[in-house]
Each structure stands twice: as structure tokens, then as C-alpha cells.
Input
Amino acid sequence: MGNLDDYILFISRKIRDSKLPEWLKTKINTNLTSINYMNYTVLMIHIEAGNESVWYEDKLYIRDGHEKQAQEKSGSQISAVYNLFK
Output
């Protein structure tokens, strides 16, 4: 990587070329911001809660605290996730 702009472009292209839904890729890429924190440059991606759940490669990723692993879920558990968006 050459400089910060090249790095942000690299990340943006990875998001653009991902299998995420188009609306989500746009939402993510328009919210990439570099900030300086204690002499470090940090890439911040601000993502607001959406109106619906997002499936990725036929898996529903459910956040359980800080754990973000894809987990097999029963119908009632998936239903509970959908109820969060009502």
C-alpha cells in the first residue's frame, strides 16, 4: 500500500466487489472515514441499523455480544431476529 488514499480505495473496492446486497455496499462505502487517534490513522466505518436482516452466502449472521460467527439457528430464533426490525 502506498498511502492512505490507496488503502481506502483498496478497502472500498473489496466492499464493492463483495457479495453483499448493493444497497448495503453503497451504505458502507459512503460512510468510510479516516480519523487520527493517538498518532494512528484509523479507518472508521459507521453503519446504522437497517430495516431488515441481511443474509450473506445463505447464512444469517447473528450478533451475540461480541461473537459474530455464523451459527445454525432454529426457525424461532430466526423469527426473533426478524421481529427486531418491526
User: Anything to note?
Assistant: The chain has two domains: 1-48, 51-86. The first strand starts at residue 32 and ends at 37. The chain has a mean pLDDT of 82. The CA atoms of residues 34 and 43 lie 4 Å apart.
